[in-house]
Write a structure and sequence with these properties.
With about 475 residues, the protein is of the alpha+beta class. The chain is built from six helices and 26 strands.
């Protein structure tokens, strides 16, 4: 801001080194500098950041680890009461992948537990040998089991970059288990689109969907289509007593070739994995995430085969030329190619890469709903949502508790709130404040202790009016 320049008149910035000012000139310079700082801050507004710094070294010497980069929040002098200076995080973490650790290397979490071997803990002079314990509620705490005993001790958080659990893809950062998005940044939630682009909008590829209906004039293998190089999210399905056959460009069958039926399972073909399934009813499917590194030929003795895949735009022209030269799908009626921007999207037959739209939540308004959930809850508090992480069948919110109305057990300032669905009802938006009623959920084996937001539960944007209503509900609960 330059305040010390005007006050002392002796510090230089770059090449601007004026002569030592006189006292009157110094006073004018101080006033001018203060005025500029105040006006400049009001123009900046809240939430401005310095540029990101460089990435740090990897936290691990082998295998997977994390690196971090930081930025600083520029806090304006004047801001509205209660306004946060910056809503986002000043740190960003990404996965760094080094060569695999040598066989027999001690896992990272084991090393951290071993640091306490032979040292007195628990307020006594007795020492123990410690090994990791994975049954504690927070998997990013350094929970270590005393060998030969039936108790474990938590030594605080694990170091950043520690795997959340054996074999898991998530890594612990600042006490939280985070998964990397397709951009490699932990907790970003970035997803690949159908074209394989991180954060894309499905606009760099085409969705090809056809039905093969040509019965052919002979018995045996009948060419259905060419699955071109670069195809992604491939799905082939049919209902008949016959079997799908898949052949590589070298003429060798991948499955169901040479009049031999292959068992269901996963097959390697053209640089990808093809999942072959056969149901009890006469139905077969082939699915592959891709991309394929070479062409594949699909054959079938029976018409009515549905196939679909996504193909880069630049490969679509050569694909058409090649299939017409082979004379396969040209004879079928009404082939169609659907662009990704069409309103009808393909059914999510492979693992979903983009979030599906969530259905509307049921109406939970009214005094009766508020009273029911307040009286039947274990916790009621006002909190700001600072993070959200969606897993397969549940959503986890990280919240900063600001005001507690009811708690049957102790609470920390930062807590996790779990909702039992990928599309929770009601949904909670990051950086918003809510008044919520929660229940405590402890697993039968005691390894999980959670704050649960029930489906269609009570979580409403906080307001003074809602505060008054919840205090009134507290006085009406039956004793």
């Amino acid at each position: 801001m330059g305040f010390s320049v005007g006050l002392a008149g002796t510090r230089c910035i770059g090449t601007l080194c004026p002569l030592r000012p006189r006292p009157f000139q110094s006073l004018l310079l101080v006033l001018w500098t203060l005025l500029n700082c105040v006006l400049g801050s009001s123009a900046q507004g809240p939430g401005e950041w310095t540029p990101w710094g460089s990435w740090s070294r990897c936290s691990s010497s082998c295998g997977r680890g994390v690196s971090v980069r930081s930025r600083r929040c520029i806090r304006p002098i004047r801001r509205l009461p209660g306004e946060e200076p910056c809503w986002e995080s000043g740190h960003e973490y990404r996965v760094c992948q080094l060569p695999d650790c040598p066989p027999g290397a001690v896992p990272f979490r084991d090393l951290q537990c071993a640091l306490y071997n032979g040292h007195p803990v628990l307020g006594t002079q007795k020492t123990y040998q410690w090994i990791p314990f994975h049954g504690a509620p927070n998997q990013c705490d350094l929970n270590c089991l005393a060998e030969g005993h039936t108790f474990y001790h938590s030594f605080g958080r694990v170091l950043d970059g520690t795997p959340c659990s054996p074999g898991a893809q998530g890594l612990c950062v600042a006490g939280r288990c985070l998964s990397a998005g397709c951009d490699g940044v932990l907790g970003s939630g970035a997803l690949e689109d159908r074209c394989g682009r991180c954060g894309g909008a499905n606009d760099s590829c085409l969705f090809v969907q056809r039905v093969f209906r040509d019965a052919g004039a002979f018995a045996g293998y009948w060419n259905v289509t060419l699955i071109p190089e670069g195809a992604r999210h491939i799905r082939v399905a049919h209902r008949s007593r016959n079997h799908l056959a898949l052949m590589g460009v070298d003429g060798r069958y991948v499955l169901n070739g040479n009049w031999e039926v292959s068992p269901p399972g996963t097959y390697e073909a053209a640089g990808t994995r093809v999942v072959y399934a056969r149901a009890a009813a006469p139905q077969e499917t082939l699915q592959a995430a891709g991309p394929t590194s070479q062409d594949l030929l699909l054959q079938e003795p029976n018409p009515g085969v549905q196939f679909e895949f996504w193909l880069p735009r630049e490969r679509y022209g050569p694909f058409q030329v090649q299939t017409q030269a082979l004379g396969w799908p040209v004879r079928q009626p009404q082939p169609r190619e659907v662009e990704a921007r069409a309103p009808i999207a393909p059914p999510p037959l492979m693992p979903t890469l983009a979030p599906d739209p969530c259905p509307p939540c049921p109406d939970t308004r009214g005094r009766a709903h508020r009273l029911l959930h307040y009286c039947g809850s274990d916790f009621v508090f006002q909190a700001r949502v600072v993070g959200r992480h969606r897993q397969a069948q549940e959503t986890r919110y990280e919240v900063h508790i600001q005001l507690i109305y009811k708690n049957r057990w102790p609470l920390r300032t930062r807590e996790y709130v779990w909702a039992p669905a990928h599309c929770p009802c009601p949904p909670l938006a990051p950086q918003q404040e809510y008044l919520m009623a929660l229940r405590r959920l402890v697993s039968p084996d005691g390894t999980q202790d959670r704050l649960l937001l029930p489906h269609a539960g009570y979580a409403r944007p906080w307001s003074p009016a809602e505060d008054s209503r919840i205090r009134l509900a507290a006085r009406r609960c039956p004793v």
